[in-house]
Amino acid sequence: MSSEKNNVADRQAEADLMTRVAGGDQAAFAELSEKYSALVFSTAFKVLNHYEDSEDVMNEVLATIWRKAGTYHPKKGSLVTWICTTTRNRAIDRVRSVQRRCALYDRFEEKLDGDSPEYSLTGREALYLSDARTILQSAVVSLSAEQREVIELAYFEGLTQKQIAERIDSPLGTVKARIRRGVERLRATIDDRLKGEGNALLGGVAE
Hints:
Layout: H1 2-22, H2 26-48, H3 51-68, H4 79-101, H5 103-115, H6 123-142, H7 145-155, H8 161-168, H9 172-194, H10 198-201
Helix pairs in contact: 1-2, 2-3, 2-4, 3-4, 4-6, 5-6, 6-9, 7-9, 8-9
């Protein structure tokens, strides 16, 4: 019974805090930010696997809470659930935005589809492909913009490292380093989460 009372009290405290934020109370917003920023960041990082992007999403979500605090209704769920759902949706939107601009992900999708058997997938195979796609999304997003740029120029436009250096007006050594670090980061991310599948999934990209 005491646990139930505590939950009711916590829910009421959350509702009161959000009501104050909705009313433009900056002290309440500061309190909310201090209490939930780490949760927002960790939720975003689980999707993005990238520090800077997760930090950006955290700031976007906090700004959204400031603007839309009045839309929170405690009867529909806890504040933590509301915040986590908002964060995850914003992080997924960011992944999709990167995908639209990133030829690397299209290449990975072709690799996965090409390896898929013609017959109906078993439950385990379907789960593997679903996990692989999610992990590849995170791997691509984890690259810096500079790493994505040189890898795409090298592997999709077929430019030599010297041509890339001239195209982006960077030293040849810088281009080589970006390509090497980018491919290593992709492989490490995939290997870490798909038990050594990095070489297989990067076959057409990293060679």
